[in-house]
Design brief:
This protein has 6 helices and no strands. It is mostly helical. It starts with a helix and ends in a 5-residue tail after the last helix. It is globular.
């Protein structure tokens, strides 16, 4: 049994990256085609935001429109897959996980704390459960790729730190 641990440690990040990417990429066909289910979700969120004085926040041209969220999901999926496929860019995988974690934190929060609810499309809460699974996967991936996360932070620090004169 102990010989399975290195195999699991090697493949778990890849399985998580593929699963999360599939969920993100599959959602794009709804978000980018203005599917009625997507309209229902974002219209309900926009009405809620409007009641709080932020009309249009989730509207088609809003800061958190379905297109902006879909774009973030596409970026997260791309970074997760690029970091998996091309080892020299493995440090991008934690960035994809961070973006995915942020998007899914928002999704879960809006499901729980707004009139959207857990089952906005009468799917038995499947969309909410998928968001929870992807959120957990991204968190696990960040833990498993903590060395690469450190590498990413080091690269960002070097990029944003002024060069010595």
């Amino acid at each position: 049994m102990p010989e399975l641990l290195p195999i699991a440690a090697k493949w778990t990040p890849h399985v998580i990256a593929v699963f999360n990417s599939i969920v993100f990429l599959d959602s794009l066909r709804f978000k980018f085609t203005n599917h009625p289910n997507t309209q229902e979700i974002f219209n309900r969120l926009d009405a809620w935001a409007g009641s709080l004085g932020a009309p249009g926040l989730f509207g088609p041209t809003g800061l958190f429109s379905q297109y902006v969220i879909g774009g973030a999901e596409l970026l997260a999926a791309s970074l997760l897959l690029i970091g998996m496929i091309y080892v020299p860019l493995r440090f991008l995988q934690p960035l994809g996980a961070l973006i995915g974690l942020a998007v899914m934190t928002g999704a879960i929060s809006f499901h729980l704390f707004t009139p959207l609810g857990i089952d906005p499309n009468n799917d038995g809460g499947g969309l909410f459960r998928a968001a929870c699974a992807v959120w957990a996967g991204n968190l696990i991936l960040l833990v498993l790729r903590r060395d690469e996360l450190g590498q990413l932070l080091g690269r960002l620090q070097a990029f944003f730190t002024p060069a010595a004169a």
